[in-house]
Amino acid sequence: MSPGLHTKPAVVKAASALLTEMQGVSSSLTYAALLTDDGFDVARLPGETDGARFAGMASSMQALGDAVTHELKIGNSEYIIIASGKGYVVQLRVPGKELVLSALWDNDATVGNALAISRSYAQKMADLLK
Amino acid sequence: MAEHVILFTGPMGAGKTTAIESLSEIEVVRTEANNSERHIADKPTTTVALDYGEILIGAEEKVRLYGIPGQKRFDFMWAILKKRAKGMILLVNSDAPDPIEEMLSFIEEFRELYDRGGVVIGVSRADVVAGPTLGDYSDALERTNPDMVIPVFTVDPRNRDQMENVLLALIANIEMRAMFGMMTTEAV
Amino acid sequence: MAVEVNQVAGEPASVSMGFPVTVGWTHAAMAVYSVLRLNTPVNLKMHIEMHSPLLIDFRHHAFSWSTPLEIFPVDAVHTGLETEPTSDAAPPLFELPGQDLDGLLWEMGINSFGGAPAYWLPPDERYRLTRWPNLTQHRHTMQQMQMMAVLGNTFVSTSELAKLTGADESDAQRLINALSLMRILTRTSAAPAAVVVAPTAATKRQSLFGRLRKRLGR
């Protein structure tokens, strides 16, 4: 993957459109970003979050998740959830791509629902890149 | 269990992961992603969270070797990893566009590790390219940090013997600094 | 007994120094020290029994010798030494880059003066490193490394250095000689900044350096 997906205007445009569509599906989605495995922001929903910084953090978290599942010999990490008092982050890899979808939800959404939506949009992103 | 955390720092492509692999007795925990900045460092993958290796000294004592991701966009990991470290091995690659400037910026960024422990600098690929001489690195350090005497060695991060020397020099330095700090206080 | 380098103005031919046949590196170290101190462009050629000539081009801080430093002949028999005035513009004495002169200075300094002070070092002084030698490229002992860690952090005399690290005074002196020949020591005649106490057996046990060194089999 060289150069990265974040440098390809067509990919960035499609990813932005997809995130906007995702936000339309659930009003509990407060922030979302698509980022490369090595921490570059491809697209994000507008918000107060520092997108570049969050992309770095999310990619580190993804890699740590992979390192943990590898260490414990439990296959590949499918998704990561961080729960807090004011909401939670659901993060997963776009199937077959060096791309990660990370989304912040408020407490009005259930984890199951948030995960289902995230999965479906990760798959849509994968289909777009075919 | 006593633990001693040593941090491997420096820009992308300097050889931090390789150096930890040369030293570690356990399979190194790596967090690598495909590198989309091949124009900056021509290598297929890059560390995005940390590398982790260990040297077990006895049943009760470990040297923990942590490597940082070299790119500035991962500086939140730098802040996490430097908290527990007592010393740092700063690697720079001679064939970077401005390795001296990179060295100085990492010294500045991780200055607290010098203040509370010690620092050794390893210059990689010095034998391969006609980059700055070791004297050039030392001159730059003296100019910017006249109070520090930081060891600067050429290293091949793949060479276990050399990396052991670098690690031991760092530990010797940390311990001597601690000792003289203590002795000066006692003498007052 | 200082060996002064004959400088023959306007005469480019090499000059033999009336060098006596000597065993070991003391005279060679003295000659090299003189050239380094004078800092004039001079090439040096050493003739050593059983070895090819050792060439030093000080302008490029380089030397050329077919004998690898890993098998440095401590008891080499020196049969002659020539100096050759040169100029900044003149071509190098051998094909560059050659080998880094520091490697030779290190071996030469360690293996000369028989563990006594180099003749250019006045008595009763304290030393401190201005920069570390490139240790990954020089054969060294763990004790020398530890002594350099002391010298990197404080001014000490040779005997204080020996006491602090448990080294023989002659080994401490050999190191001081080498670092001085490499011109990476600064000196002072001032009193010590801190009280020097020899480490006890207990503090040695407490040293991570000692334990790690043992663990790594060094």
Descriptive report:
The complex is a heterotrimer of chains A (130), B (188) and C (218). With 130 residues, chain A is α+β, with helices and mostly antiparallel strands. Chain A has 3 helices and 5 strands; from the N terminus they run αββαβββα. Chain A has a single domain, classed as Dynein light chain 2a, cytoplasmic (Beta-Lactamase, 2-Layer Sandwich), CATH 3.30.450. Helices cover 43% and strands 24% of the residues of chain A. A 5-stranded antiparallel β-sheet of chain A has the order 2-1-5-4-3, with helices on both faces. In chain A, β3 (80-84) and β4 (87-93) form a beta hairpin. Chain B is an alpha/beta fold. Chain B has one domain (2-187): Rossmann fold. Chain B has helices spanning 16-23, 75-82, 99-109, 111-116, 134-144, 160-187, and strands spanning 2-9, 32-34, 45-47, 51-58, 61-67, 85-93, 119-124, 152-155. Chain B is globular and about 45 Å long. Chain B starts with a strand and ends with a helix. The model of chain B is unreliable at 184-188 (pLDDT under 50). In chain C, α2 (101-110) packs antiparallel against α5 and α4 (158-165) crosses α5. Chain C folds into 2 domains: 15-111, no CATH class; 121-215, Arc Repressor Mutant, subunit A (Orthogonal Bundle), CATH 1.10.10. With 218 residues, chain C is of the alpha+beta class. In chain C, 38% of the residues are buried. Chain C is globular, with a radius of gyration of 19 Å. Helix content of chain C is 31%, strand content 17%. The N and C termini of chain C lie far apart (39 Å). Chain B binds chain C through residues 4, 55-58, 61, 63, 134, 138, 142, 149-155, 162, 164-169, 171-173, 175-177, 180, 183-184, 186-187, and chain C through 128-132, 134-137, 142, 145-146, 148-150, 152-154, 193-197, 207-209, 211-213, 215-216, 218.
Summarize, please.
With 188 residues, chain B is α/β, with parallel strands linked by helices. Chain B has a single domain, classed as 3-Layer(aba) Sandwich (Rossmann fold), CATH 3.40.50.300. Chain B has six helices and eight strands, in the order βαββββαβααβαβα.
